[in-house]
Design brief:
Blueprint lengths: L13 H6 L8 H19 L7 H17 L6
Helix pairs in contact: 2-3
Length: 76
């Protein structure tokens, strides 16, 4: 990490919904982080953004994406 703080939120723009925020990412790390952010967002969306914990959404999404990137699990 570069030491800079990155704020994450579940808010998305119309452009993100149409194109996907990962489409314009550069570099493997940026793309991975974007994929995790999107997966965490979809976890919260699935429960209607009610309850839950954003940190747990992130951690679960991180496990899911890392598994997919290693080719050890199938996409759901």
């Amino acid at each position: 990490m570069t030491g800079k703080k990155i704020e994450r939120s579940y808010a998305s723009t119309e452009a993100d919904q149409e194109v996907g925020c990962c489409d314009n990412s550069t570099g493997t790390l940026d793309q991975r982080e974007c994929m995790i952010a999107e997966a965490a967002y979809f976890r919260a969306e699935k429960r209607g953004f009610v309850g839950g914990d954003p940190v747990q959404d992130w951690v679960g999404a991180e496990r899911e994406i890392d598994c997919l990137l290693r080719g050890e699990c199938a996409p759901s």
